[in-house]
Structure formats: structure tokens, C-alpha cells
Design goal:
Length: 402
């Protein structure tokens, strides 16, 4: 198997086994995907070789959440968490490779986002955007003895983009279709979608964060039921949606803002959860969970009606239909998926399972960063400017060599 150390960065693309690693805004753990990536005439070809999920240990998850939501945290704590996560990612990759008797040539690690500000705000007299992902790449390089691609987001942000979403490159590579519109919906901590018009090139792709997915529900489940998440949407199923609360929350300016746009825990963290609880008053706990779940469904449906539907109609006049393909932990929430069907199927959307396309829902984002690492290694751009708002295509990430 070719090894990157035997090839120059930016050399002719070659087949490689790449380990992709993702830990999302839900901060529930690490997903590892081992992907065989082969050059193709129009786009690279991907084959998933193995995938494994690793839940964060309770103390580690508490530290990650504290770093995300705290108004202040010591420099020592930030440094320690950054390095500890590097060790954790290395352990997860090594275990996945060993269990499946595989070898990798390259690693792409997204890291744990602890702060993301996609919209410029004035700081020390200058408007700026910023993003920060934890997980020391040198730890991975040393433990695995492999080159590591990390820090994928800053290059897009420096080029004027939101640095999110970055998964659209994988979406277009795997799911673009000559005659069918495709909507790829990720339901992680934050909900984001990629809308690919039938027969279009990547420049016509529309992608953005629609709002919260699991993040708010998870926080409420922990507060009200001392559980990490609503398994299969069972708690929401027992509740009644408090529609006035959903209506009040839908007035937020974010939902009306035109793409490109991105959001995160900064908007949907503790302060937002407190606001929802206050609006709900003395409602039953099950009703509060049902309401938070309905908010996710409504924000996605609003995004489709307001931005996606007009875009697809303009850019794919020959389309014969629209497929909606959900991935991420929220795709396993039967109540959320039912709410989405109720809102979207009357608009002519056909629901499809991502597994039908050979990719488990939990592996998608990790596979995306395997692809982005492969592109970076070969000196190829990985962002989609129409999705992030960047001024140009850029090569993403930094390479840490052994």
C-alpha cells in the first residue's frame, strides 16, 4: 500500500487508506472511519473499510462541555484538554485499525470545536471571525507514526468564509445525481444540510447550518431526566408540543438570515436552553422534550421552504424528484424523523436512508474528514465556496509529519 512518506505532498493523486476522525458539537464521543480513497476521472472514489464509535468518558465529556460553555476557563485547563484529546484520538484510531486488521497511510482529524464564530465581531478594534478545535496533532503523529492533517477550518475562514459546513465536499462527491435533486441532512449537535441540484457542478451546491439538532434536546434530557439523550425519541413521543414556545423561538433572526451561515454551541448552549425552559414554564418534562424536538424539525422545514426549494427550482429544471437523506445521531430519533416527514413529504420530498448508499449514518462526518485529508495531501482544495461563503477554493488544514 502506498505510504505518504514515499510521495511528495501535492504529487499525482494516489490510492490511500485514510483514517478520518470526527467529534461533533454534541460532545458525546469520537467517530473513526477508515476509508479507501482512489482517484477518479471526475471525482475521487470512496470505499468505507471500517467504522467505530467511542463514547467520551464522563469526566472527559464534562471537561469538553465546560470548555465550550464556560465564560472563563484557565489557560492550563485549555492546554491540558487540547493535549488529552490528541491522545484520545490516537487511541481510537489505533483500536479501530487493530480490530479490523487494517493499515492507514494518512489521518484527517477534525478535532473538538470549543469555539466557533462564523460572523465577524469587533475585537480590539477590528472585526474578525475565529474558530478553535482542540486535539494536538503532534500527539497523533507520534503515537500512530503517520502524517496528520488537522485544523481544517481556519483556511476557509481566512478566505472570508464561515469555515462551515465542510462536509459538502463529501456530499457532492458521493451523492450528486444527473436527474435527482439531493438533500443531505446531517443531524448532529447542529443540523446542517447540503442541497445538490440535479446535474449541477459543485458550484451550484447550497449548504448551511439550519439550527439545532440534538444539542438542545440532549441538554434538556440531562437536566430533566439525567440521561445523555432521548433514545429513539421515546421521551418526545410521550410529550405534547408546546407550539407557542416553538413559534416564539422561531422568531430568532438566524432563521431568516440568508445562507451562507453557520452556528454552534455559542448560540444553542446553556443560555438558549434556559430561555426555552423559561418559555415552557410549568409544562411537563416530556412536553419540553417534544417541543425541543419539534423546534429542530421546524427550523429544517423552514430552511427548505425559504432557501432550498427556490434554489433547487432555479438550478435544476430537469430534475425528476428530490431525495432527502439524513445522517448523524438524530437520524436514529424516530420522533424527529416522523416530524420531518410530516413537514417535508407534502412538499414532494422522498426520504431515503443513507445506509442504502453504502455509508452508515454515524460514519459520514468522519469519512468526510478522511476525504478532506486526502485532498489536502494532494494539494487540492477541499472547501465549497458556495457553501461556506469563502472568496475562493482553498487547501484546508495543516500537515503534521512524523
Amino acid at each position: 500500500m502506498p505510504h505518504p512518506r514515499n510521495a511528495r505532498v501535492g504529487s499525482e493523486p494516489q490510492p490511500l487508506n485514510v483514517a478520518g476522525v470526527m467529534s461533533g458539537t454534541s460532545a458525546d464521543g469520537v467517530d473513526v472511519a477508515i476509508v479507501r480513497i482512489t482517484p477518479g476521472k471526475a471525482a475521487p472514489k470512496l470505499k468505507l473499510l471500517a467504522h467505530k464509535s467511542f463514547p467520551y468518558a464522563k469526566p472527559l465529556r464534562s471537561a469538553v462541555l465546560a470548555a465550550m460553555d464556560a465564560q472563563s476557563i484557565s489557560a492550563a485547563e485549555m492546554a491540558r484538554l487540547h493535549w488529552r484529546l490528541g491522545e484520545v484520538y490516537a487511541e481510537c484510531i489505533a483500536e479501530t485499525l487493530a480490530e479490523n486488521k487494517l493499515k492507514a497511510s494518512l489521518v484527517g482529524v477534525h478535532g473538538q470545536t470549543v469555539y466557533h464564530q462564523g460572523v465577524p465581531e469587533k475585537y480590539l478594534g477590528t472585526p474578525l471571525r475565529c474558530t478553535w478545535q482542540f486535539g494536538e496533532a503532534s500527539c497523533l503523529a507520534e503515537r500512530l507514526r503517520l502524517p496528520i492533517v488537522s485544523d481544517f477550518r481556519p483556511a476557509d475562514m481566512a478566505a472570508g468564509g464561515h469555515a462551515a459546513p465542510l462536509v459538502p465536499m463529501l456530499d457532492y462527491t458521493l451523492f450528486a445525481h444527473a436527474k435527482r435533486n439531493r438533500i443531505l441532512q446531517n443531524l448532529g449537535g447542529i443540523a446542517n444540510l447540503s442541497a445538490i441540484p440535479a446535474g449541477s457542478d459543485a458550484g451550484k451546491l447550497l449548504a448551511f447550518d439550519t439550527g439545532p439538532a440534538n444539542m438542545v434536546v440532549d441538554a434538556l434530557m440531562q437536566r430533566l431526566f439525567q440521561k445523555k439523550y432521548d433514545r429513539n425519541g421515546a421521551t418526545a413521543k410521550r410529550g405534547i408540543v408546546l407550539q407557542p414556545v416553538v413559534n416564539a423561538l422561531m422568531r430568532d433572526a438566524y432563521y431568516a438570515a440568508a445562507p451562507p451561515k453557520s452556528t454552534g454551541r455559542e448560540q444553542y448552549g446553556i443560555v438558549f436552553v434556559d430561555k426555552l425552559m423559561k418559555l415552557a414554564g410549568k409544562a411537563r418534562s416530556e412536553d419540553i422534550i417534544a417541543t425541543a424536538t419539534a423546534l429542530t424539525a421546524e427550523t429544517i422545514a423552514h430552511a427548505y421552504r425559504t432557501f432550498v426549494w427556490p434554489h433547487l427550482g432555479t438550478n435544476a429544471p430537469l430534475a425528476t424528484g428530490t431525495d432527502y437523506i439524513a445522517a448523524g445521531g438524530g437520524a436514529k430519533n424516530a420522533t424527529l424523523m416522523r416530524m420531518l416527514r410530516e413537514r417535508l413529504e407534502p412538499l414532494g420530498i422522498t426520504f431515503a436512508a443513507i445506509e442504502d448508499f453504502g455509508l452508515p449514518a454515524e460514519a459520514k462526518e468522519a469519512a468526510a474528514f478522511a476525504l478532506l485529508a486526502w485532498l489536502t495531501w494532494h494539494h487540492l482544495p477541499g472547501n465549497v465556496p458556495s457553501a461556506t461563503g469563502a472568496s475562493r477554493p482553498v487547501i484546508l488544514g495543516r500537515i503534521t509529519h512524523v
